[in-house]
From TrEMBL:
Gene3D superfamilies: Vaccinia Virus protein VP39. It comes from the Bacteria. It holds the Pfam family MetW. Coiled coil: none annotated. This is Methionine biosynthesis protein MetW.
Length: 205
């Protein structure tokens, strides 16, 4: 299982209700079901990946995350997870608000665009950077956004969404090995992982 998913798994309490958006073949859901006895649901737009997850006995819906998440009532889940998919999301603000409507906590992971290798590539080649974390040319990438860790913090502040926990890591796209970065994460981390709480409602004090 990918290193970022391993980190996320340590944040999940046993017996929790978990929704995994863009769950792919369900590796995280399968791990959490076996190790932490969660009640898990996944949504995956890729039919083949969703089929593989369902074949594992997981509760996975083949569909669009924007459409499917609207069907869930408020606070239906303890955790809603979006791992390595935020850079492909058309409307991050709407999706994040929906995640924190249906879930008590949201967890997001994404490649850190301002890793020093990306900066050096742009400085010395003048070209859009490519890396193991962002392995596409500009013309064939599924990613429509680039996200520095520091800008994601600003985004959460803009939304009024509290950051409950965050970890910066150095790992490659699908690697099972990695390490936590504590010094200058916006420069040296390849991925950021954030746990987010529900925005405070006016008059809730």
């Amino acid at each position: 299982m990918r290193f970022d998913l391993q980190v996320i798994a340590t944040w999940i309490e046993p017996g929790s209700r978990v929704l995994d958006l863009g769950c792919r073949t369900g590796s995280l859901l399968a791990h959490l079901t076996e190790e932490k006895a969660i009640i898990g649901t996944g949504i995956e737009i890729d039919e083949e990946a969703a089929g593989q997850a369902i074949a594992k006995g997981l509760s996975v819906i083949h569909g669009d995350i924007y459409e499917e998440i609207e069907d869930y009532p408020d606070n239906a889940f303890d955790y809603v997870i979006l791992s390595q998919a935020l850079m492909q999301v058309l409307d991050p603000e709407t999706l994040l608000r929906e995640m924190l409507r249906v879930g008590r906590l949201g967890i997001v992971s994404f490649p850190n665009f301002t890793h020093y290798r990306n900066r050096l590539q742009m400085l010395f080649t003048g070209r859009a950077p490519m890396s193991k974390e962002l392995p596409y040319e500009w013309y064939n990438t599924p990613n429509i956004r680039v996200i520095p860790i520091i800008d994601f913090r600003r985004f959460c502040k803009h939304l009024g969404v509290p950051i409950v926990k965050e970890v910066a890591i150095s790992t490659h796209h699908h690697d099972e090995q990695g390490k936590v970065i504590t010094w200058l994460p916006n420069l040296f981390a390849t991925f950021g992982i954030f746990m987010l709480g529900q925005a405070r409602r006016p008059g809730s004090d």
